[in-house]
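Dear support,

Our group has been running a series of protein-ligand predictions, and this particular one with pyridoxal-5'-phosphate is the one our PI (initials K.S.) wants archived with full inputs and outputs. We had some confusion internally about which version of the output was final, so please treat the block below as the authoritative record. The input we submitted was:
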Amino acid sequence: MRNLPVAEPDLSGNERAYVLECIETAWVSSAGHFITDFEEAFARYCGTEHALAVSNGTVALHLAMTAMGIGPGDEVIVPDLTFAACANAVVHAGATPVFADIDPASWNLDPARVEACITERTKAIMAVHLYGNPCDLDALCALKEEHGLYLIEDAAEAHGARYGGRPAGSFGDVSCFSFYGNKTITSGEGGMCLTSDPALQEAMSRLRDHGMDPERRYWHDRVGYNYRMTNLQAAVGLAQLERLDEFVEKKRRIAQWYRQQLEGAGFAFPAVPEEASCTYWLTSVLLPEGTDRTRVQERLREVGIDTRPFFYPMHVLPPFAQDGSFGVSESVSARGLNLPSGVTLGEDDVAYAAHHLIEAAGKEAPSSLHAVNGALHEKTI
Ligand SMILES: *Cc1c(COP(=O)(O)O)cnc(C)c1O
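Confirmed final output from the archive:
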């Protein structure tokens, strides 16, 4: 029996050597050259002027909003289908997340629904690239311009993605990344804020470091945070960044293998915008409507295949309960499954997972669905 996790980091590059250097030189905390090396290399990779390494992706979002002056009375538009960190960060900033339904093909923010959510209180749109698939940045950037809003790009799941020839992470007034252990590249825990706006960079830099004036030690002109990354984390992050392109290429190949193996079996993959390249951080599919997803997951677990259900829609979670029409995100959330997608998988692993998925979904689908699958295929693959 195989053991196929959903995601697993590959730390076989320079990670060990760089971490050892931190320990041998005793530069373990938040001064040390790996932090600035990682920031500079990440800014170069994404094509922004500045990068600021922080403790995780959630505080990256919080730092961005705080630096923008977003707070009580303000609204931030967030996709209804995303990780809860997006909504948590808005609430931590003192503002209100307003959820917009998603597009049924890409599973990302539907720009028409975003526009319908804009009020005089709206300060920002949080553009999330779900599971590595870039959202409709042309339309969202146009809305941002038209309504004078900030765009916060949440690229926590989309390291190495591109849109219109530009890297994900170069579109936001601030763009945020996470380097949690299951993300495309990791620093254990960690995050990054990217910007080309010197005022936002300056504000975020101070807020990250207790609100202290960099020219005047122990002079704090506003309430700040300790959101710094350690040199140890940055050492791992830099070594991972050296291999980002290789990891993305492998994840794309894994998704391609799944598409071939699952073709004609009634599973829907996300539609990638024409001008975008998706990284497939996680290969994700929608099960045929009516399939018992929990039973499918159980059957797959029995043969060593780890899966994850999609996120719950934000508007159903108790702290964020909200009225509105969210039919698309409800349906996608209920049918979605993340498949094993780690960079160490081989083609035979993917064939094994796909074979068992087809079998498990077939067993758990209502019998009439077998006939429907052929018809679904035309629209979904
Ligand atoms: C992982 C993730 C975050 C939060 O990152 P952490 O480093 O875990 O705090 C935020 N947004 C999205 C879309 C994520 O996937």
